[in-house]
Design a protein that fits this description.
- The protein is an alpha+beta fold.
- It has a single domain, classed as Transposase IS200-like (Alpha-Beta Plaits, 2-Layer Sandwich), CATH 3.30.70.
- Helices cover about 40% and strands about 15% of the residues.
- It has a 4-stranded antiparallel β-sheet with strand order 2-3-1-4, with helices on both faces.
- It starts with 9 loop residues before the first strand and ends in a 17-residue tail after the last helix.
């Protein structure tokens, strides 16, 4: 499950609270998580879909080519880092730093100590384009997967579904994503059908509620 990240490849990324503890306590935590995620990683990966749940999250990303990596003069990765390290090493380290930064803010907020996240975030290579749209469906239907039947994936504020359909600028790679589905109407129709998750079981990362 801890495969090496490689440039130009798609991955299903998952992490959860250590011992299944909550990682989001208030709405502002979800907002802060997305803000820090973009600060740390938007220069190095493309994000296509996400869903944030109280004690875990899912992402669909693609690692950018190393030649497009953002150089940070006074922080990681510097020009020297990019010349010496692989794209996968850099992105993995940025995820580690992102998790540490977010965990620090939650530990202060909740007056807690210790690790917030599982030590190693899980990642799974998505090497078949046929399944990309089905994985997006799975990520956006996390509410159903975890028994939150009273919540609607169409209006849930902490997934990418609504943001993908909005016309305003976003850090999400919406244009390419919608092209997979054949446009917004087909994107909506695809999500409205019932898709047996066993169809993409080999691409999903099972977790606990």
């Amino acid at each position: 499950m801890h495969c090496m990240l490689q440039e130009g490849c798609f991955y299903h990324i998952y992490n959860r609270g250590n011992d299944s503890v909550k990682i989001f306590y208030q709405n502002r935590n979800y907002i802060h998580f997305l803000k820090k995620y973009n600060e740390y990683l938007s220069g190095y990966i493309y994000t296509y879909a996400y869903c944030l749940m109280p004690n875990h999250f899912h992402l669909l990303i693609k690692v950018k080519p190393l030649s497009e990596f953002e150089v940070r003069a006074n922080a990681f990765p510097s020009e020297v880092d990019i010349s010496k390290l692989s794209a996968g090493d850099i992105v993995s380290e940025l995820f580690r730093r992102f998790f540490m930064s977010y965990a620090k803010s939650i530990n202060i907020q909740e007056a807690r100590n210790g690790s917030l996240f599982q030590k190693f975030f899980r990642r799974k290579l998505v090497d078949n384009e046929v399944y990309l749209s089905k994985l997006v469906y799975y990520i956006h239907h996390q509410l159903r997967h975890h028994g939150f039947d009273e919540l609607d994936y169409k209006s849930y504020p902490w997934s990418s579904y609504r943001r993908i359909l909005e016309d305003r600028e976003s850090s999400l790679n919406k244009k390419e994503l919608l092209e997979w589905f054949g446009g917004k109407i087909e994107f909506i129709k695809f999500h409205e059908q019932y898709l047996d998750e066993q169809v993409i079981g080999h691409l999903t990362i099972e977790d606990q509620k």
